[in-house]
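hi! just following up on the protien thing from before. the input was this:
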Amino acid sequence: MKPVLPFIANPTYPFTAQWIDALQRAMPDERIVPFDALDDAARATCEVAIVANPRPEDLRALPALTWVHSVWAGVERLVNDLGETDLKIVRLVDPQLADTMAEAVLAWTLYLHREMPRYAAQQAQRRWEPQEYLRPQHKTIGLLGLGALGEAAARRLLDAGFKVCGWSRSHKTLEHVDCYAGDDELPVMLRKCDIVVCLLPLTPQTTGLLNASTLSLLRKDASLINFARGPVIDDAALKDALDRAALGHAVLDVFAVEPLPEDSWHWRHPRVTVLPHISAPPDRGTASAIVAANIRRYRTNGTIPDAVNLARGY
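and the predicted 3d structure came back as:
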């Protein structure tokens, strides 16, 4: 008889029941239960769990646990919470997630391109003041991160007519995209951009990558979209650039502390659009099918999917 398969999330997570339902439908031969439903025998023998930002103490309560399958693409928080561990962490690799992120990148790029923050401010002041229109061909969008998410976003932006450039740690080649790599080429790319979209994983190397020095390289009135992780941007440097109008606008979907505290400066800043971490929510249907295939393979022959490199954090 197969052991039960736990779904472990933070107790405050509101969609645990929906995930269990989707996963159960994708894996009818498994019995998927929340962490609190595990008895002592199940906790002692559980080798694999499906997780969504779980509490580290819950994972440590499973002594036989060998690996976990996250339903998120980003697992930096879990890696940091666990610290040094032999536990293998498998993140979600779902083409649908890349497509959803690409949609968000295009949507919020158009939001900035078509001056929507400015028109919203004018409406609040009852000002009828048309702004000059520039075609997408006259705007350069810079993507920080050219992995699966960046590649999908680049295609959407190119299809919409924008010029696209991108930066990554190691050199990539994408058709019709000016690609840059490494510390020396980051300033070159940033100087070209009208809008910068951050899609980088959070690692020691990317923490604070956008700081006072790098933000100063952007064109005056350039804008920023952060769909990566909050600490990739130096928050104080960002506020200073926005206060001085050295940066036109920032669309922020991620923050160092989430949910964003009510007293945070971001809420009330006229040059900031706050989003509640919604740029690319996983599709429970496609994600569950991918998790199910990986679990089935493990049950059949013991194969664990490629795990996160804990030194890199992704």
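The chain has two domains: 5-94+282-301, 98-274.
Residues 5-94+282-301 form a domain with the Rossmann fold fold (CATH 3.40.50.720).
cheers
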